[in-house]
Amino acid sequence: MGTPGEGLGRCSHALIRGVPESLASGEGAGAGLPALDLAKAQREHGVLGGKLRQRLGLQLLELPPEESLPLGPLLGDTAVIQGDTALITRPWSPARRPEVDGVRKALQDLGLRIVEIGDENATLDGTDVLFTGREFFVGLSKWTNHRGAEIVADTFRDFAVSTVPVSGPSHLRGLCGMGGPRTVVAGSSDAAQKAVRAMAVLTDHPYASLTLPDDAAADCLFLRP
């Protein structure tokens, strides 16, 4: 899988959702997103789909935009995928929880094994989960709690799962990502560097690190089609 999911395995499909017009009116402000230039966002969305299909050779599955779900294009929050298993998340914001319905159906159609979160005390945003190809790190943030991290560990028992405190308003993958099979890319902010140091203490695997000036630039996904 390409999006949402974890990018260290072999990928054959990418899942994206169209940009709703409601984002142009600033309805994403509750998540800290400004009102978008809709035409520009739709052009960029088309470029993304083209690169996934043409440059990476992925089969592109596109969900239609839903005006009632202005943050619906942020599919990375809705599922954690490794191998043939997809863990459907339970976003921290109740307003975002309907986003998982279309994603669940699409992943079921692909034949993935679907795991649901039944614990109402758990919160889990997929962009708090970083898979390195060897292990999982789960950010404990405003968006994801300990119970959510425990469910990741219960779902993917073949891998070590460690929790990383995340300070500030970001998700873990808003601070760092995988730039290669053994390279962690991180922003230069205090929050990003603290997260990387915590990961280094928790892991038994050697990773190279690359620091970028901008945290947002570290939010990347390494794919091997």
Explain what the structure shows.
The chain has 225 residues and is α/β, with parallel strands linked by helices. The chain is 23% helix and 23% strand. The chain has four helices and eleven strands; from the N terminus they run βαβββαβββαβββαβ. It has helices at residues 38-55, 99-109, 146-155, 190-202, and strands spanning 13-17, 59-63, 79-82, 85-88, 113-115, 129-131, 135-140, 160-165, 176-180, 183-187, 208-212. Strands 3-4-5 form a three-stranded mixed β-sheet, covered by helices on one side. A three-stranded mixed β-sheet has the order 6-7-8, with helices on both faces. Strand 7 (135-140), helix 3 and strand 8 (160-165) form a beta-alpha-beta unit. The termini are close together. Belongs to the DDAH family. Keywords: Hydrolase. This is DDAH family member 2, ADMA-independent. GO terms for molecular function: hydrolase activity.
Topology:
Blueprint: E1 13-17, H1 38-55, E2 59-63, E3 79-82, E4 85-88, H2 99-109, E5 113-115, E6 129-131, E7 135-140, H3 146-155, E8 160-165, E9 176-180, E10 183-187, H4 190-202, E11 208-212
Parallel strand pairs: 1-2, 4-5, 7-8, 10-11
Antiparallel strand pairs: 3-4, 6-7, 9-10
Family: Belongs to the DDAH family.
Keywords: Hydrolase
InterPro entries: DDAH-like
State the distance separating the first and last CA atoms: 9 Å
Proportion of beta-strand residues: 15-25%
- Outline the low-pLDDT stretches: 1-8
Q: Approximately how much helix is present in the residues? A: 10-25%
Question: What are the secondary-structure elements, in order, as H or E?
Answer: EHEEEHEEEHEEEHE
Mean pLDDT equals 89
Instruction: Using the alpha-carbon principal axes, give the shape.
Output: globular
Structural class, from secondary structure content? alpha/beta
Total DSSP E strands: 11
* Largest sheet geometry: 3 strands, mixed
Helix segment count?
Answer: 4
Side by side, the strands of the main sheet go 3-4-5
What is the rounded Rg? 16 Å
